[in-house]
Amino acid sequence: MSAHRDKVDVKSLPHEFKEPVQLAIIGGTGLYDLPNLHPVARLTVSTPWGFPSGPITIARTEDGFPVAFLPRHGLHHDLLPTDVPSRANIAALKSLGVKAIIAFSAVGSLQPEIRPRDFVLPTQIIDRTKGIRPSTFFEKGFVAHAMFGEPFDLKLNKLISEAVPSSGFLEQFDSKYVPQLHTKHTTNGGEDLTVVCMEGPAFSTRAESKLYRTWGGSVINMSVLPEAKLAREAEIAYQMICMSTDYDSWNESEEPVTVETVVGNLKANSANACKLAATLVDAVAHAFETGVGIGDDLSGSMKFAVSTSPDGVKKELLEKMHFLFPGYWPLH
Ligand SMILES: CSC[C@H]1O[C@H](OP(=O)(O)O)[C@H](O)[C@@H]1O
Ligand SMILES: Nc1ncnc2[nH]cnc12
């Protein structure tokens, strides 16, 4: 995606950043840096779950608000969806002080009205991953169950929906069509918008794609899980913003999806994606600065989600938990 600011040599940036960073953007396919913002640090963060997908860049908005940026598949997109180190990604962001994550993702559309290059703010998830991705920070010896009935953060969802004007915001990409932003309350009559998360890396068959439509799927990707679950466990408000790039494989009047189609639509729509990213960063930064309290209702929730009595838990396990939840369960 093109950068609108003067080019900064990111390798020469400081490797430390002392202020807490409350907002993070996870970039998906086609979004490998934060256009319009001024990078001020580049961090390599080690966590008990290993290293994140890549270095985390801290950039500032024009008002000086710091934002962390992490490319999900690495700087050169060399991580398969299955291999994204989501535990390290979320733990690293948590350790910087992050309270809210906006995660970008390229998705296939499962519904005719969600056209390629439209944006979608999902509210629900169907898990079609294969159980081969580590999907929790908890483990044998320390058991907890996070609430996930509402998998995205409703406050963040509302804030994002309201930050984008219903018309005149997204630019027309050809003479016929202006992309739309689909959200539960503004365009979907209060109905959920559901992202199906598949394992990949091959795309779905036509039969699978049609099945997901009967399940009420709106869009499909390979990325929202376990990212959203881990963010919830880490008490971070999380919302994904999806950019539709294709009609997956259900639509028999179209060729089944290929990477060429995905990348073609991402490139053609990059100005809209950049505009959206910049607007959302400003809106969430403003919410933090004015004390709206994004993520506050999650704070402390995991204390009450634990089933194991902390008294008998091994020290190494408590130390790992301490990385995410300092002070929740005293080290003995
Ligand atoms: C390149 S097409 C499939 C790939 O695109 C999406 O990635 P992301 O969510 O990181 O934008 C999808 O989830 C797949 O990983
Ligand atoms: N059709 C599709 N299926 C899964 N992930 C995708 N990412 C973009 N298009 C996709």
TrEMBL record:
Pfam families: PNP_UDP_1. Keywords: Cytoplasm, Glycosyltransferase, Nucleus, Purine salvage, Transferase. GO terms for cellular component: cytosol; nucleus. Its main location: cytoplasm. Its EC number is 2.4.2.28. Pathway: Amino-acid biosynthesis; L-methionine biosynthesis via salvage pathway; S-methyl-5-thio-alpha-D-ribose 1-phosphate from S-methyl-5'-thioadenosine (phosphorylase route): step 1/1. It is found in: Cytoplasm; Nucleus. It catalyses: S-methyl-5'-thioadenosine + phosphate = 5-(methylsulfanyl)-alpha-D-ribose 1-phosphate + adenine. InterPro entries: MTAP (IPR010044), Nucleoside_phosphorylase_d (IPR000845), Nucleoside_phosphorylase_sf (IPR035994), Purine_phosphorylase-2_CS (IPR018099). Phosphate binds at residues 29, 72-73, 105-106, 223. Catalyzes the reversible phosphorylation of S-methyl-5'-thioadenosine (MTA) to adenine and 5-methylthioribose-1-phosphate. Involved in the breakdown of MTA, a major by-product of polyamine biosynthesis. Responsible for the first step in the methionine salvage pathway after MTA has been generated from S-adenosylmethionine. Has broad substrate specificity with 6-aminopurine nucleosides as preferred substrates. This is S-methyl-5'-thioadenosine phosphorylase.
